[in-house]
Design brief:
Blueprint: E1 5-7, E2 11-19, H1 33-42, E3 45-49, H2 58-71, E4 76-79, H3 90-99, E5 102-104, E6 108-112, E7 115-119, H4 138-160, E8 165-169, H5 196-201, E9 206-209, E10 218-220, E11 226-229, H6 232-238, E12 246-252, H7 262-276
Parallel strand pairs: 2-3, 3-4, 4-5, 7-8, 8-9, 9-11
Antiparallel strand pairs: 1-2, 2-12, 6-7, 10-11
The chain binds fe (ii) ion (2 copies).
One fe (ii) ion (FE2) is lined by residues 21, 23, 51, 81, 83, 210-211, 213.
Amino acid sequence: MAAVTPQPGRGTVLRVAALGDVHCGVGSPGALQPLLAKVAAGADVLVLCGDLTAYGQPDEARTLARELMAAIKIPIVGVLGNHEYESGRQDEVRQVMVDGGVRMLDGEACEINGVGFAGVKGFGGGFDRRALEPWGEPTMKRFVHEAVEETLKLGAALARLRTARRIAVLHYSPIRATVVGEPLEIFPFLGSSRLEEPLNRYSVAAVFHGHAHNGQPEGRTSAGIPVYNVAMSLLQRHYPAQPPFRLIEMMVPPAAPPPVPAETARTRESLVADDGR
Ligand SMILES: [Fe+2]
Ligand SMILES: [Fe+2]
């Protein structure tokens, strides 16, 4: 269970650390320990935004899972990235992470200390008026269909959450702003504006993604929702004096008092009626 910091009269704060694109290989076990120790010391939850492995090999995932288990006792939420698909063993990779205690989200949601997390990998297709449309060859239509499917999964996951605060976890970017800096030619492969619609519709509190290693660390959706690109190499470049993870504090409002049971309400009404007679 994550620790939470009480804020008298204002609810609690959940400290969320986010990190993407670790690209863990099998060659250097223990390399992540200094970073993960800082995460463990400063956060209540860790979010992993995909590209967990270099080539999507289960041995790479086992290396990462061992690193996480050695250093992290707080809850971990994660999504797969495109690298996990490279070897066609993404289901094994996912299971290794689940066995290592990571809540892997693929159109699912979970709640941690009053904050909801919804996750999907996402997909490409490009942004805004230049987004790819399902037109022409069947392959083009399938490409767009993949982004539409991921968007529907994200919306369904968000719809299941009943928490006052929701966080979305993606690998691909839902907005253009956080991929700026990458070559223009590859923008359509870095994310899709289609993913933005459910984020706005469900008034998500924050969005984390990775994948665009040379993008920008922050942007906002058209509704003003903060979007954080947490690709590890990007954070190292932008914030060289800090450990390469993003930490945000999420205020969790106090739980609403439970509704008065209907029977009690009726009893009170009858008591008032009795008094009046
Ligand atoms: Fe990556
Ligand atoms: Fe990626």
